[in-house]
Design goal:
By secondary structure, the chain is α/β, with parallel strands linked by helices. Helix content is 48%, strand content 16%. It has a 7-stranded parallel sheet, sandwiched between helices. It binds acetoacetyl-coenzyme A (CAA). The site of acetoacetyl-coenzyme A has 19 residues, from α6 and α8. The site of acetoacetyl-coenzyme A (CAA) has 19 residues, from α6 and α8.
Length: 240
């Protein structure tokens, strides 16, 4: 039977490309979304991928949603924690609410998504966890103390999970996308965006599919010895 893959924030942007790539590779895919019903309905219509609505920042909602996915599709073998938001502001202007929203969704959201299904992965002795971090978790970014903190935190999560999961044949890895042509990056003021692109040696933004292919590699049955790693896909903008 096809393995079941769950992608949070999987109906738009990088997440949608990941959902499609995994479906094309033969996995049974469920994509979650938090609010945009219309985008989710269009996504399902175009791809045939089932979508589920819950807020990754809410533990109880995540737990109930994940249980529903497993009731519908079977045990989740693969989880891609992709859901993320930005609330950019220079630190002196950042509000506690902007700080909290980003931490709750991007960082606690990873806990909420993986924790309820982790015991099942341990029991079945198979699991693939991929967290979508960011170049800005590796290098920091003006205007993103909140976001960079969460994306750096993701790397701590996967390195720890890798150590806990390895003996159960569970891997936990991260992908750090650079600047990818999605709505999130298009929301950056044009002048700022132009200067960012000028700093990317590849001379362009990345495509969501370029991240999706990294994820497909990490979740495959064949990649079991790749554990606690980070793939940086950023057009040579930054090296760790
Ligand atoms: N480096 C240095 N200085 C900068 C700067 C930068 N990157 N950006 C702004 N500044 C300076 C401005 O020139 C300005 O200087 P002066 O006061 O001397 O004029 C000062 O900082 C304050 O700027 P603003 O008043 O314009 O600040 P603002 O309140 O309007 O906020 C900002 C600006 C929201 C931080 C805006 O610059 C911005 O959106 N930056 C982009 C942040 C970014 O890269 N976000 C990534 C989003 S995509 C993503 O997150 C996906 C991913 O994983 C890669």
């Amino acid at each position: 039977m096809a393995r079941v893959a769950l992608v949070t924030g999987g109906s738009r942007g990088i997440g949608a490309a990941i959902s499609k790539e995994l479906k094309d590779k033969g996995y049974t895919v469920a994509a979650t979304y938090a609010g945009n019903d219309e985008a989710a309905a269009n996504f399902t219509e175009q791809t045939g991928i089932k979508t589920y609505k819950w807020n990754a920042a809410d533990y109880d909602a995540s737990k109930a949603g994940l249980a529903q996915v497993e009731a519908d599709l079977g045990p989740i073998d693969i989880v891609v924690a992709n859901a993320g938001i930005t609330r950019d502001a220079p630190f002196h202007k950042m509000t506690p609410e902007q700080w909290r929203e980003v931490i709750d969704t991007n960082l606690t959201g990873v806990f909420n998504t993986v924790h309820p299904i982790w015991p099942g992965m341990r029991e079945r002795k198979f699991g693939r966890v991929v967290v979508i971090s960011s170049i800005n978790g590796q290098k920091g970014q003006f205007g993103q103390t909140n976001y960079a903190a969460t994306k750096a935190g993701d790397l701590g999560i996967i390195k720890s999970l890798a150590q806990e999961g390895a003996r159960f044949n569970i891997t936990a890895n991260a992908v750090c996308p650079g600047y990818i042509a999605t709505e999130m990056v298009m929301a950056v003021p044009e002048k700022v965006r132009d200067s960012i692109i000028a700093g990317i040696p590849a001379g362009r933004l990345g495509e969501p599919e370029e991240i999706a292919r990294c994820v497909a590699f990490l979740v495959s049955d064949d990649s079991g010895f790749v554990n606690g790693s980070t793939i940086s896909a950023n057009g040579a903008q930054f090296f760790v």
